[in-house]
TrEMBL record:
Residues 7-54, 69-104 form the Phorbol-ester/DAG-type domain. The lineage of its organism: Eukaryota, Metazoa, Chordata, Craniata, Vertebrata. PANTHER family: DIACYLGLYCEROL KINASE, DIACYLGLYCEROL KINASE THETA. It comes from the Eukaryota. Keywords: Kinase, Metal-binding, Transferase, Zinc, Zinc-finger. It comes from Pterocles gutturalis (yellow-throated sandgrouse). It holds the Pfam family C1_1. GO terms for molecular function: ATP-dependent diacylglycerol kinase activity; zinc ion binding. One of its GO terms (cellular component) is membrane. GO terms for biological process: signal transduction. This is Diacylglycerol kinase theta. Transmembrane segments: none annotated.
Length: 104
């Protein structure tokens, strides 16, 4: 759950091989955008449907605790990615698969 919506910071459109759009889940074969902060990938046509769930890079106001929660993002892991717990392969270059924390 996100308490405050945080907008993505998309760079100029480019071509990203072996990546998938997190909105429509299809392969990025044409021009696409990538968030400079969290590396979210979306098609040019899907960018308007991307939710504002970028990782929060700062805290507004006074924060008594230094607690950072995991910020889970689905997919776009390398095909050689392995689970930190069981060490099994969890990435794929053929489908949008796996979960990764954007902080860890």
């Amino acid at each position: 759950l996100w308490q405050v919506p945080v907008a993505h910071c998309f760079g100029p459109p480019g071509h990203y091989k072996r990546k998938f759009c997190t909105v429509c889940r299809k392969s990025l074969e044409s021009s696409a955008f990538r968030c400079e902060v969290c590396e979210l990938h979306v098609h040019t046509d899907c960018i308007v449907f991307a939710c504002s769930d970028c990782r929060q890079c700062h805290q507004d106001g006074h924060q008594d605790q230094d607690i950072y929660h995991h910020h889970w993002r689905e997919g776009n892991l390398s095909s050689s990615a392995r689970c930190e717990v069981c060490k099994k392969t969890c990435g794929s270059s053929e489908v949008l698969s796996g979960m990764r924390c954007e902080w860890c």
